[in-house]
Amino acid sequence: MVTAVACRLVSQRKQIDEILASFELSKENLIEVKNKMRGELEYGLKKETHATATVKMLPTYVCGTPDGTGKDLCKAHKNNLPSFNYLYYCFVNRYEKMTSGMYLGEIVRGQISESLRTRGIFETKFLSHIESDRLALLQVRRILQQLGLDSTCDDSIIVKEVCGAVSKRAAHLCGAGLAAIVEKKRENRNLEHLKITVGVDGTLYKLHPHFSGILRETVKEMAPQCDVTFMLSEDGSGKGAALIMLWQKDCIMLEKIKNKDKYLSTFVQVH
């Protein structure tokens, strides 16, 4: 009986290791992702290949960083185009699903138990909680029990390992993609070494105990000639939208004043 139990445990461990191995990315894999991103950026920038590129590069009329005058923003508004460069991912649909906090919980759910059939039941916040270094296995087990899983301590260890593999892969993929972008910026500016600050938003970066560290290390390894500083941006998308609306309003007001001055000047000349 002991032999049978031992064989079952060995078989189970082999199964788990195979699942975990599928989430492992070698350095060669990450270089391939970086090169793929770089290639798609180039396609998106070229007029000849833009239409079929999977990463769409939209033109921007913002020529520099804000200096208080709002001139570049008014120019962007006048042309009815976005004020910033956006990457629109399509190869990316899959890339996004493997890196976004919105989907990581679903990936874990699909690996740990067939009984978790309800979509969205394993939220990404659970992934962050389970991976916390301060969380004991008993507490991990409690989270699983809240989800309706009658788990053992061994199950808790497995779930923790799966959560770690999924989030680690996500951080590596994000880092490889970002490395391609900063390297492109460095080359565009003809710099031997680039110093740049990247704004980051999202609960995965803010709350996950290891994601931000793995992301930073990956970018450093994949883009060694770029010194990237990450700055947490609280509600970046909401504030960005509010700022653009404010600038748009200012641009409209400036245009009205300009037209009014032009009208008054013409009126004075006529009379």
From TrEMBL:
<comment type="pathway">
    <text>Carbohydrate metabolism; hexose metabolism.</text>
</comment>
<comment type="similarity">
    <text>Belongs to the hexokinase family.</text>
</comment>
<keyword id="KW-0418">Kinase</keyword>
<dbReference type="GO" id="GO:0005829">
    <property type="term" value="C:cytosol"/>
</dbReference>
<dbReference type="Pfam" id="PF00349">
    <property type="entry name" value="Hexokinase_1"/>
</dbReference>
<dbReference type="InterPro" id="IPR022673">
    <property type="entry name" value="Hexokinase_C"/>
</dbReference>
<comment type="pathway">
    <text>Carbohydrate degradation; glycolysis; D-glyceraldehyde 3-phosphate and glycerone phosphate from D-glucose: step 1/4.</text>
</comment>
<dbReference type="GO" id="GO:0005739">
    <property type="term" value="C:mitochondrion"/>
</dbReference>
<protein>
    <recommendedName>
        <fullName>Phosphotransferase</fullName>
        <ecNumber>2.7.1.-</ecNumber>
    </recommendedName>
</protein>
<dbReference type="GO" id="GO:0006006">
    <property type="term" value="P:glucose metabolic process"/>
</dbReference>
<keyword id="KW-0808">Transferase</keyword>
<keyword id="KW-0547">Nucleotide-binding</keyword>
<keyword id="KW-0067">ATP-binding</keyword>
<dbReference type="GO" id="GO:0005524">
    <property type="term" value="F:ATP binding"/>
</dbReference>
<keyword id="KW-0324">Glycolysis</keyword>
<dbReference type="InterPro" id="IPR001312">
    <property type="entry name" value="Hexokinase"/>
</dbReference>
<dbReference type="InterPro" id="IPR022672">
    <property type="entry name" value="Hexokinase_N"/>
</dbReference>
<feature type="domain" description="Hexokinase C-terminal">
    <location>
        <begin position="94"/>
        <end position="245"/>
    </location>
</feature>
<feature type="domain" description="Hexokinase N-terminal">
    <location>
        <begin position="15"/>
        <end position="71"/>
    </location>
</feature>
<dbReference type="InterPro" id="IPR043129">
    <property type="entry name" value="ATPase_NBD"/>
</dbReference>
<dbReference type="Pfam" id="PF03727">
    <property type="entry name" value="Hexokinase_2"/>
</dbReference>
<dbReference type="GO" id="GO:0006096">
    <property type="term" value="P:glycolytic process"/>
</dbReference>
<dbReference type="GO" id="GO:0001678">
    <property type="term" value="P:intracellular glucose homeostasis"/>
</dbReference>
<dbReference type="GO" id="GO:0004340">
    <property type="term" value="F:glucokinase activity"/>
</dbReference>
<dbReference type="GO" id="GO:0005536">
    <property type="term" value="F:D-glucose binding"/>
</dbReference>
<dbReference type="GO" id="GO:0008865">
    <property type="term" value="F:fructokinase activity"/>
</dbReference>
